[in-house]
Amino acid sequence: MKKSKTLVPANTARPERKEVFAGKSTPRDAAYPLIGAHTNGGITGAVAKALEIGAQSMQIFIGSPQTWKPPQPAPDDIKKFREDVARENLGPVFVHGNYLVNLATLSLDNLQKSVLNLHTALRLSDAIGAEGLIFHPGSAGSAKRSEAIDRVLAAMTVVLKDYDGQCRLLMEVCAGQGQTIGDDFGELGTIIAELNYDKRIGVAWDTCHLYNAGFDVATEKGLAKTVSEFDKLVGFEWLFAVHANDSKNPLGSRKDRHENIGQGYIGEEGFRRMLHHPELRSLPWMLEVPGFDEKGPDRKNIEILHRLSA
Ligand SMILES: [Zn+2]
Ligand SMILES: [Zn+2]
After folding, report:
1. What distance lies between CA 43 and its chain's CA centroid?
2. Which ligand is nearest to the CA of 59?
């Protein structure tokens, strides 16, 4: 397998856009963004939280995101969650993967735990009716980037083995801190191509991560460049969700600290432009911000995104 930072597969078998969209639970021709948030409480508490803050789309954790303890939601709770989401007309729902997962790790023990965790989480995410399981591909550590990507590819193949659910495994763009995989569109495009454009996978954006990885989504010119680069190296048909976070740190800082919308370096105008961009407008936008009361994503941040998208 040959790979380079900006590899676009030569005799490209890149499928048609509509082919990749097929099977999606959310219509991609929505005329407005589906604004929501990461809502705490897991499958037993997240719906109440979403209603409290006025979230449409939602992202939740299943199980503890900081330990290897496998999530074991009760079947009744899964059933109730699906019913509540449907009754309240919420969604789409996404699950955020465990933070310990690192598919690029050199430690065999960590790799096995990571694969098992994602394997379980993907099937549970499908069971609760989620559209995507968003995860951070991992960090190369001291290893060569190309070798790290090979490990990610092999691990994703195992995670997806014999899986035929509707929930997609979504790689989140990273801020480029350390040796994280996923701050380079060429690498994400390579992974998708090497997995033969598998329709069980996809990508999630995070506006703060992009900005800190050096994509200037805060300006008109920077956004245009980011969009054209992503379109060329990955393709928007592979983008399924956006984490809407302002940034506490300046462009290209390679740090990952989220800020409330309008209080960081991206600013309200940056978000207004992104929310109106035709490639981004109909996507689910989910906040992962500190909140104006420091209690996590809140109604105020959601209202700001609504105002900016109007
Ligand atoms: Zn994120
Ligand atoms: Zn982050």
Report:
1. 19
2. 1
Domain ranges within the chain, ordered by starting residue: 21-309
With 0-12 / 13-18 / 19 or more C-beta atoms within 10 angstroms meaning exposed / middle / buried, residue 172 is: buried
Nearest to 241 by CA among 36, 42, 61, 49: 36
- Amino acid identity of residue 255, one-letter, is K
Predicted TM-score (pTM) above 0.90: yes
Question: Per the omega criterion (within 30 degrees of 0), is the bond before 75 cis?
Answer: no
CA of 174 to the centre of ligand 2 (A): 7
Closest listed residue to residue 106, CA positions, set 141, 136, 158 = 141
Give residue-wise pLDDT tens across range 130-162. 999 999 999 988 889 999 999 999 999 999 999
What ligand has the least distance to the C-alpha of 172? 1
Region class of 55: left (phi > 0), else alpha (psi between -120 and 50), else beta: beta
21-309 placed in CATH 3.20.20.150: yes
